[in-house]
Amino acid sequence: MADVVHRISELTHTRLSWFGCSDDDACNRLNHRHTVLMLLIFSAILTSRLFISDLIICWTPGEFTGNFVSYTRHYCYVTNTYYISMNETIPTLNNSHMRRKRSIYYYQWLPILLAFQSLLFLIPRLMWSSF
Fold first, then answer.
1. Is 11 left (phi over 0), alpha (psi -120 to 50) or beta?
2. Domains of the chain: which residue ranges?
3. CA 71, 75, 79: angle at the middle one, nearest 5?
4. How far apart are CA 131 and CA 128, in angstroms?
5. Tell me, what's the pLDDT at 19?
6. Is the per-residue pLDDT at 70 higher than 70?
7. What phi and psi values does residue 82 have, to the nearest 5 degrees?
8. CB within 8 A of 47, min separation 6: which ones?
9. From CA 37, how far away is CA 31, in angstroms rounded?
10. In 52-119, where do the E strands start and end?
11. Taking a C-beta distance cutoff of 8 angstroms, is the pair 33, 118 a contact?
């Protein structure tokens, strides 16, 4: 029985290749080509923002200049940050509950997660084409 199925699949593949077709339909191509490409482009855009623009805007004291401001912004990017609107007062060290409640964790992980997600869209195609 397995031999019959194998011969039918070979025959189907041969017939499709005669006409320049493959076993991919539009949905498969959308998943393993276009989605992977789109996710990698977004990941590259977000990663390039690390080197081109300001990563995040952090409050710095007035006496900080140049390298100090740059260091503070990089430090804010890799540590847990929290959002404060411009008309709110900056919380004191005693108010750590508010900081934990409003923490934002996704900044530094988003490009990595998008690249990993594109890999997850590509793995089934690689496995399928290897057989």
1. alpha
2. 30-130
3. 180
4. 6
5. 53
6. yes
7. -145, 155
8. 111
9. 10
10. 81-82, 103-104
11. no
